[in-house]
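Problem 3 from the worked examples.
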Amino acid sequence: MQNLKAVTGNNRKFLLPGLSIFSIMFLSSVLIKAQALKPIHDGRDESETPAASNKYEAFIKQNALPKARQHWKDNEACNEEFSIVGETNGSFTKANSSQTAILYRYCTRGHNFANNGIVIVENQKIVIHLVYEGAEDYSIAALPDINSNGLSELIIEDGSTNQGYTVGVVNIIELSSNKVKKFGITDTYEDNCGAVEKCTSTAYRLLVKTGSVPVFYRETYKKSRNKWVLSGKAKSTKLREDEIVYDFILN
């Protein structure tokens, strides 16, 4: 006897030849799981990082840079070379607010070592200003509230090449008036194309199951004949500890 499945549409049921009820339940659970995972970063993206606008440059130079300069004044390895790296919009410290997060670089201290700052601006006023010794971070973006508390998290991207080996990483944080919640750091890309002739390239797509305690997943891709091919389906992954020290600057 042929298996039948019921499909509901326009308040009517149709019996169609196809899968058993158990197969339908299984496929439904797979679909629900897939829908529950939100992509938040894709290491396969090889597009150029958009150049930072100069919209906030004068504002940051006037209202934040002097404070950063005072904070770093005793850091002998840090010679000021201020630049705006990127900006993104969201509700970073207050739900349903319209705020802008600006990432800037204060100085570089060596290969992929830099002193950076993040400024949150709302209504032309600085809500938060923090500084940190980290890497040469080159992009910042808002995430869509992965822990369901009404706030937009920040994902910060960094990458470097050393002796022919290239790596890319991201770290995810959330800000409040006096605290940084650190979700962790994870790899997003790696290759050895500057070191060997027949090189390998691996990229990861980062996804999250949102909730009060978000769960992160990674898909793995390998490059073959200049095309990315899925080599590992989404698996839960634990982000590495973010050991960066974030210092708040009072304005």
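Problem 4, a separate protein:
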Amino acid sequence: MRNRLRPGMITAAFVALALAAGGPVQAQHGEGGRDVGAGDREGQAVPASARWNEIARQVAAADQPHGGAGAVAMGGRTLALVSLAQLAAAEAVEAAEAPVAVATASATLLAELFPSSRSLIDEQVEVDRASAGGGGSLVNAEAAGREAAATVLRWSSTDGHDARWTGILQAGPDRWVSAAAVEPVGAHWGAVRPWLVESPEEFRPAAPPAPGSAEFAEALDEVRRATRGRSAEFTALAEKWMAPVDGYWNEVATDLITRAGMSEVESARVLTMVNAAVVDAVITCFDTKYHFQFPRPSHVDETISMAVPLPNHPSYVSGHACVSGAASAVLSDVFPAREAELTALADEIALSRLYAGVHYRFDNDAGLAVGRAIGKKAVEMNPTSAKLLAR
């Protein structure tokens, strides 16, 4: 049996990402993020789609905080809807009109989803209107943006994201157990309409190792060794990546997009691919979780200590791994010079969940594979807004 726990190996890869040519991909995780409407990256103009992606992250985080055991919003859905509205708006107008169309689409959609933040949203869209000047082109761009947002909102209203789960939690010593008097998190997400895949079963992984098997015993022992007298490095990684990471990968994406000087259509398409892949990775992940209802390590061995709160959903597969695999696969294809660093970053995020004591390695490995397969499908599809809205 080889020793898989190698402190410093993944961290070194992440440091390499931060020091690579072009500067750090992103250095704001866990630091509260940048102010709304942050300025240029090293002199590069920030596309409206990237700027409004940042605004969307802040608005959604304030209105739909992740964590806890309650009903949280499905990972990435809000950002995916914003990106799709941006892409539809940018595709509908001339290049010169695209920034205002994208800003209007973003603001219209966000104001509908988060009415309590309307004053902030209105303030930010005025920044875009002022920089664009006036005239007929502005009127046409705003109309295209409003229409794009309305179309996406109508389309999203029938995706099943707010349905109630009608499944049954399986009983038995080898099955996951929900926290007492708490509703399981994300149980219905597997029934949400996918954006890219035909169904969650398309990329549902094979069953995890059976409890009692030698493979399972080895995986459980690895969690024990990682968490028993947990090192400062392992604790730091577990805490660093404790929160859901869909917003973080959007930070990475917008930084890379801005540094590359992408047009509005290009930027919106990359963000749409990233977030559509993330949504489908989450759908597949939670379909898998409630299909197998596999116990967490601490359910099998109560002596396992956790560095983060225990998520109230089954163990197999890891959501952090699914999301990171999907986003890194898309971004690696778009920015191939950064593939090694992006892949290492996804691996670090996944492995942090083992260090935290909430996942086995096979949860992470299967989750990364699921996400990467869906990310590859997003790249191959290279979707237009019309193609996605026709689903």
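Solution to problem 4. The first helix runs from residue 9 to 19. The radius of gyration is 21 Å.
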